[in-house]
Design goal:
The structure is a single chain. This protein is about 60% helix and about 5% strand. The chain is mainly alpha-helical and about 625 residues long. It has four domains: about 110 residues, no CATH class; about 140 residues, Alpha-Beta Plaits (2-Layer Sandwich); about 70 residues; about 270 residues, no CATH class. Helix 1 packs parallel to helix 22 and helix 19 packs parallel to helix 21. It comes from Tetracentron sinense. One of its GO terms (cellular component) is plasma membrane. Keywords: Ion channel, Ion transport, Membrane, Transmembrane, Transmembrane helix, Transport.
Length: about 625
């Protein structure tokens, strides 16, 4: 029986609908499960400071009051029954550098003390210059003792400067409330008639805060993000040049034409197979090694205030980068390199058609890429060769004390900014090639099976948890899978438009439309669970906590939760006392401004029996 070409094309068309509906069904079920798990997690987890705390930014300047006084009076007026305490944000970046340098000097001092204790016949020596390689040779213990004393004085001076200089106080504060309900109302509402001031958002948990970026003025964030957007655009598209060179390695004829003296070597069967098979994937992997670090630095420059936001933004950019350079770049420069000039100048309507023609031709390359990047990457993850090599290098060159050894052995945390977009890239490959070249699917299935087993083990037994986001990544994951599904549909339309079944191509137009509608449905139905905290859930949690712990000292629990780490107790005696000094600043102060002479007294909190606020001195209104 002879099967007509049209019949075979109709099979591709039907399977496109099958894969689309199945993907949407699984995504909808998964979104529902993840949203339910997130709400259950928020309802059942133990008390955390971020449940009661809101970050307030862009506090307007006031000539009569400091930022601390202004924040306190604003929330006493507008949230009189729920406001509890606040902690202003200080620009302590310079102080943090001094503290870090002092710890480094302490470490060197301990190292030389230990060295001297083992051999007291000779005092250890060191050089005073750069990396202890230049300068005069002096007694190491005395030198680092003097350095520690010098840094202690600078740290004390810098702390005094921050405390007394109003310019060190940023127009932002962490504001804590007596209840989760009060915090939810504040975080999810507009505080002022002017929507550009008194901006509120949920505070990240204390260990998730990226403190250096809190010192960035809010007004500069827009400019910073514009700069990074332009920089990322040029990084993405100029990176196409090395990608094009890498993909040209798969073209034996091109190499022989450019380097004719290598013809006899290249024609060897083993070398030819290696060049066409594995060399492009390996070279591409090498080019991408430094990319995550570059993208993380770009996210930090943008000014995100928490580690989870930094990783989410880096993950989004990493996915877009590999989508353009690895997927589209490999297709365009690999099979249409000779027609690249015409591709640039052709109509935008012809781009899906051109790429669609190229997709089946690159199936072999992506099979190789899955084995080199995916399978080998998973094997490298379970073996952890890179951390093992780095540990031995640190142990040989950097480790001086047991504290150094512990830091060198730190396994770190799971890199969401790289692992998550890489896994989603394989979703993209699977969705694109499921209908066009199904032979790719077994390779992807093997990758996901290995990835599940390996990462489950690593998360449970190896990595440290750096923060808890409560599945905040999922909406981004869902959105990128939807984008991959739409890309696969458009490319299939471009491919079929070049075949004898061009008249069947319009039947695929319904797929992107249905997919976009499905995405809008999921955003409206499930995404609010990831963006807002239901007041009903907050009230239930508050009521349950008041019942279980009627004598909870909530203010004592929140008082120092969001103090900058350099002001908290550390290894030094002087650090132990600074926390108490900082906590004493969080007392309510008399109202100065005439417009706020009638600031209401906070009402007694009738549920939690938490200690009432210190008495506020109020001026009586003039008759």
């Amino acid at each position: 029986m002879i099967v007509s070409p049209d019949c075979r094309f109709w099979t591709h068309l039907v399977m496109a609908y099958v894969f689309t509906f199945w993907t949407c069904y699984v995504l909808q079920k998964e979104y529902e499960i993840v949203a339910s798990m997130r709400l259950h997690f928020l309802a059942s987890e133990h008390r955390r400071p971020d449940q009661f705390t809101v970050l307030v930014r862009n506090v307007p300047p006031d000539p009569d009051e400091s930022v601390s006084e202004l924040v306190e009076h604003f929330f006493l007026v507008n949230h009189p029954d729920h406001y509890l305490t606040h902690q202003v944000v200080y620009n302590a970046n310079k102080l943090a550098k001094l503290v870090k340098e002092k710890k480094k000097m302490h470490n060197w001092h301990d190292y030389y003390q230990l060295k001297y204790s083992r051999n007291q016949s000779k005092r250890p020596l060191t050089k005073t210059g750069y990396l202890s390689l230049l300068g005069d040779r002096v007694d190491a213990i005395d030198f680092y003792t003097s350095e520690i004393e010098r840094l202690s004085k600078e740290i004390a001076f810098e702390r005094e400067r921050i405390t007394n200089n109003s310019k060190s106080v940023m127009p932002a504060a962490f504001v804590s409330f007596k209840t989760r309900w009060g915090a939810a109302v504040c975080a999810q509402t507009q505080q002022s008639r002017n929507p550009t001031i008194w901006l509120t958002e949920w505070a990240p948990e204390p260990r998730d805060v990226y403190w250096p970026n809190l010192a960035i003025p809010f007004v500069s964030l827009t400019v910073r993000r514009l700069i990074i957007a332009v920089a990322f655009f040029f990084l993405t598209f100029f990176f196409m040049i090395p990608i094009a060179l890498v993909q040209s390695l798969a073209n034996i004829e091109g190499i022989e034409k450019a380097l004719p003296f290598l013809k006899s070597v290249i024609e060897e069967s083993f070398i030819k197979s290696f060049i066409q098979g594995f060399l492009p994937g390996i070279a591409l992997k090498i080019f991408l090694i430094l990319l995550p670090t570059i993208l993380m630095l770009m996210s930090k420059f943008e000014g995100f205030i928490c580690l989870s936001a930094l990783e989410r933004r880096s993950a989004a950019r990493y996915y877009r980068f590999i989508l353009v350079n690895v997927f589209l770049g490999s297709i365009i420069t690999g099979t249409a390199f000779q027609q690249l000039n015409s591709f640039i100048h052709q109509s935008a309507n012809d781009i899906p058609r051109t790429i669609g023609v190229s997709i089946p031709m690159k199936a072999t390359f992506f099979i190789t890429y899955i084995m080199v990047d995916g399978w080998a990457g998973i094997a490298g993850e379970i073996l952890r060769l890179k951390p093992l090599i780095m540990y031995h290098l640190k142990n040989f060159f950097l480790v001086k004390t047991e504290k150094d050894r512990e830091e060198a052995m730190d396994p770190g945390s799971l890199g969401f900014n790289t692992g998550e977009p890489q896994i989603q890239f394989y979703f993209l490959l699977g969705l694109v090639y499921a209908v066009v070249t199904p032979i790719l699917l077994p390779f992807i299935i093997v990758f996901f099976g290995l990835a599940y087993v390996v990462f489950r083990h690593q998360i449970i037994n190896v990595y440290n948890q750096e923060y808890e986001s409560g599945a905040a990544f999922w909406p981004d994951v869902h959105g990128r899978i939807i984008a991959a599904l739409i890309i696969s549909q458009l490319l299939l339309m471009g491919l079929l438009s070049t075949k004898q079944a061009a008249q069947s191509t319009p039947l695929l137009i319904a797929l992107p439309i249905l997919t976009i509608w499905f995405n809008r449905f999921c955003k409206g139905r499930y995404e609010p669970a990831f963006a807002r905290y239901p007041l009903q859930e907050a009230m239930m949690k508050d009521t349950l906590e008041r019942t279980r712990e009627p004598n909870l000292n909530l203010k004592g629990y929140l008082q120092s939760a969001y103090i900058h780490p350099v002001f908290k107790g550390g290894d030094d005696d002087e650090d132990d006392a600074i926390t108490e000094d900082w906590e004493q600043e969080n007392v309510l102060v008399p109202t100065k401004r005439q417009s706020r002479r009638n600031t209401p007294l906070p009402s007694k909190y009738s549920g939690s029996s938490s200690p009432s606020l210190p008495e506020v001195v109020h001026e009586q209104p003039q008759p």
